[in-house]
Amino acid sequence: MDEERFNMSMRKFLKEVGVTSQQAIERVVREEGLGGKGKLKVKAVLTAEGAPLDHEVEGEIDLG
Question: Could you state, in order of their start, the residue ranges of all structural domains in the chain?
Answer without folding.
Answer: 3-62
